[in-house]
Amino acid sequence: MAAPSSDSIPSVNKAWIYSDYGKSTDILKFDPNVPVPEVREDQVLIKVVAASLNPIDYKRMHGLLKAVDDLPIVPGFDVAGVVVKVGSQVKKFKVGDEVYGDINETGTVRPEKFGTLAEYTAASEKVLALKPKNLSFVEAASLPLAIETAYEGLERGELAPGKSVLVLGGAGGVGTHIIQLAKHVFGASKVVATASTAKLDLLRSLGADLAIDYTKENFEDFPEKFDLVYDTVGEAEQGLKVLKEGGKVVTIVGPAPQAIFFFLNSTASTLEKLEPYLESGKVKPLLDPKGQFPFSKTVEAYAYLETSRATGKIVIYPIP
């Protein structure tokens, strides 16, 4: 994909934006005349090809980060696209490079006001990596926040070869990566994951040794105990019941007693570490079968994400 020359970069671009807090269907508006962001010296300007949605987007619209946010906001954390301009201090990238990343380095402390649901976005070079050559822009856009969150949680939970992990919510955007990373990168001896009936085969195909149907059985009744329970659905307290002595519960849903709760700090180093696994196909992006929406249908895409029924990720593509 050819990058436009710097003099052909427009001063305004099409973007989705909100100026008030509330439900995405009520507040998210299409604006064809949003100023293209200025590039700081450590940033690049990206022509956005694809962007993926994450639950943090709509939680932020509901006001989760109100204390640190500054309206109006263009939502979106994940991007895949082409570098069209580089700041004076940038060493890693040049114009024309195909890149991907989660642009919010500290997403809950100082979230970017101008996100990825636009024709252009600016991002610090330290949150971006070169797009693996075997992945499409759509596949690459689906990865950063989810796969980095999966990786950081497994590190915090000290998963290592010979240890076992239970993944609560194995079919979601983060869960599908926890299973793959636990098995293929961290060398877990046993990976068990929960999902609804229709999604059990998917969990097995991703590397789960055992898939538990949460509509039919309670994982708390399971006789086996685990070194790590990774909660993506809000069941951290129940997870304590199946923990080995000295084991850990990690959750990304919210603080829970005796559990490690964290918000991701985005860094390209995780994407760079995982590049060989992505290029070899050992770790794969997972897109929801109905999860590709054009830019004009961004509001519908958020409505689908908010059902919590998506399998894998939802991506916005094409972006004009």
Automatic annotation (TrEMBL):
Family statement drawn from the similarity comment of this UniProt entry: Belongs to the zinc-containing alcohol dehydrogenase family. Quinone oxidoreductase subfamily.
Keywords on record: NAD, Oxidoreductase
Domain Enoyl reductase (ER) span(s) in chain numbering: 23-316
Designated name of the protein: Alcohol dehydrogenase superfamily, zinc-type
InterPro entries in the record: ADH-like_N (IPR013154), AOR-like (IPR044626), ER (IPR020843), GroES-like_sf (IPR011032), NAD(P)-bd_dom_sf (IPR036291), Quin_OxRdtase/zeta-crystal_CS (IPR002364)
Membrane spanning stretches: none
UniProt GO MF annotations: oxidoreductase activity, acting on the CH-CH group of donors, NAD or NADP as acceptor; zinc ion binding
PANTHER family per record: CYTOSOLIC ALKENAL_ONE OXIDOREDUCTASE, NADPH-DEPENDENT ALKENAL/ONE OXIDOREDUCTASE, CHLOROPLASTIC
UniProt xrefs under Pfam families: ADH_N (PF08240), ADH_zinc_N_2 (PF13602)
Domain of life according to the entry: Eukaryota
